[in-house]
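Subject: 3,4-dihydroxy-2-butanone-4-phosphate synthase structure
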Amino acid sequence: MFSRISKAIKAFRERRFVIIFSDNENEADLAIPAQEIVAESILFAARVASGLLCLALPKSRLQELEIDSLPS
């Protein structure tokens, strides 16, 4: 397990996506640090993941940006 976490941290430092798999939900997510997002990252994620693009922000910031949050 530690090896996987180390590899994920290394990938983040190299500005690469990591795949996070959930056994409970039987699905996988792509993750990348928000400060590394550029247009090419969004296009890549939309092309290969074919799903929702999500961003974790505090509620106060969502309100400032007038973005509706998804229900938990």
